[in-house]
Amino acid sequence: MANASNRRTRSQKKKTQIKRARSERDRDDRVRVEKFLERQKTNDPFGKFWREWVESRRHLDALLADLPKNKKSEWAPRIQALLRIPSSLAAELGIGLMAGEPWNLSPEQLSEWPTAAQVFKALEAHPEVARNLAFDSSVSPDIVAESQIYGTVDDFPSEMIAQWEKDWGAKVAKKLALELAKPPGVSLRVRLKEDREKIRKELEARKDALSPVSPVGIRFEGYKAVMASEGFQRGAFEIQDEGSQLLAIAVHDPKMVLPLLTKSPGEETHPFSGEIPKKGFPPITVIDACAGAGGKTLAIADLMGGKGRVFAYDIYSSKIAALRRRIGKAQMTNAKAIQLEEGNEEVTLKEFFGKADAVLVDAPCSGWGVLRRNPDAKWKENFTALEKLPELQSHLLNLYSRLVKPGGRLVYSLCTFRKEESEAVSARFSSEHPEFTSIGGGYLGPSQTDGFYLQIWERKTEPAER
Ligand SMILES: C[S@@+](CC[C@H](N)C(=O)[O-])C[C@H]1O[C@@H](n2cnc3c(N)ncnc32)[C@H](O)[C@@H]1O
Questions:
Q1: Ligand 1, atom 6: nearest CA belongs to which residue?
Q2: Domain map of the chain by residue range?
């Protein structure tokens, strides 16, 4: 009796929660509609949106999320396509560009760039182009692939292409442009306790949706609304790129992932051939030193079947707060988020020196490997600021490597393939730290996964006294 009444109370509570969430969502949408109507009054709503985007430091997704729901589905694919492949799209629509445009425009010129509005409008008149760009999941992937407009080096700033050519040669630079101008697909990481094949069927995904590179991955080439699914609601999977999934596996068992890596981002990632133990990897203590909002933290914790411990650090309270929410939602009892004070990290860390089995330093970087998902980043890149990154990355490696215990491993990862940040920083760490031995490294993606760099060392001797 008591049980039935408890169940009734719980279900009543859940219903109230859902009702409240719905009414909050409706209220948010009403605010968006009002803002949008305000914009409409200018008679140039897209122009206003474009200027806001050029001038704003906010992420494109956040600005798009401010659009009312019906406008978002209409505008977002067109705006994203314009940002991904401005030159190729203009050419497809018969709109001429000046040499080097838009990359040679100053921010002031860019915010008034008439071609942006022209392309945006022309897409309205060409729904067949817009439909393919949207990667509408109702269109068969084969048809989409056939009619896809491919990106070229002209769709990226010339300084960026010059760097790719310097690092990798003209042929690979072209391939990187082609890959990083594609619309991003949706990848899922299936939780260890779930059956990947069952989830695939639940989501009505094709057989080949099972990722060839990640043993816990499912991928959709185009857009797929997975968040409304029952599986997502019950926490059966997370949305996560397969490259990130592999980094989490590498933290537990480098031997499983090192064979997939390539010497250059121009090569295809090799298929995965290992097998994750059913009950998860042996429980260990892991430090996720630059955890951000914790995509990799959750994966590392899940791969131990809820055992072991993952301490996730970041210097930003907003990221730690977001991570704590995610840890709670995913019910990961073996993960803990801790905020560190930048410049004073050692105060908190000192007692943990030499204690961790594995330390992941997923360092801040240029992010060029994820341009497919963040096309606006190439428009706003600060090429001078990039020069400071290797110093920061070396500093973070020096700092967090002290946590690794003898016999433990240090994993350095980046979502970029810029050599100054990847191989140069790794070579410097190896030469300055003879107590660490490199056990391998290389690149993942950006064809099969987002673009990543990975390097792993093992600590051979006792941590140095400080
Ligand atoms: C590439 S992002 C990490 C992404 C994250 N691992 C994920 O999977 O989503 C790098 C992170 O390093 C953090 N960071 C920067 N300096 C740091 C420091 N001194 N200690 C710890 N984290 C730091 C940044 O705030 C940022 O969240």
A1: 291
A2: 42-149, 242-459
Taking CA atoms only, the protein residue closest to ligand 1 atom 19 is 342
Please give the pLDDT value at position 100.
Answer: 86
Query: Do residues 442 and 262 lie in contact, with contact meaning Cβ atoms separated by under 8 Å?
Result: yes
Q: What is the structure's pLDDT at 147?
A: 54
Mean pLDDT, range 195-205, rounded to an integer = 93
* Strand ranges for 363-429 from DSSP E: 404-414
What's the CA-to-centroid distance between 315 and ligand 1, angstroms? Answer: 7
Q: Return the ligand 1 atom nearest residue 293 CA.
A: 9
CA-nearest residue for atom 14, ligand 1, is: 290
Within 10 A of 150 (CB to CB), how many other CB atoms are there? Answer: 12
What does the alpha-carbon distance between residue 466 and residue 463 come to, in Å, rounded to a whole number? 9
Q: pLDDT higher for 147 or 399?
A: 399
pLDDT at residue number 240: 96
Q: Domain 242-459 has what CATH class?
A: alpha beta
Rounded to 5 degrees, φ, ψ at 211 are: -65, 135
Nearest CA to ligand 1 atom 1: 364
Residue 452 sits at the vertex; the CA angle it makes with 336 and 53, to the nearest 5 degrees, is: 85
Q: How far away, in angstroms, is 321 Cα from ligand 1 center?
A: 14
> Does residue 293 line the site of ligand 1, with CB under 6 A?
yes
What percentage of the chain reaches a pLDDT higher than 90?
66
pTM: predicted TM-score of the whole model, two decimal places: 0.88
Q: Cis peptide before 102, with omega less than 30 degrees from 0?
A: yes
CB 360 within 8 A of CB 247: yes
Any atom of ligand 1 within 6 Å of the Cβ of 291 = yes
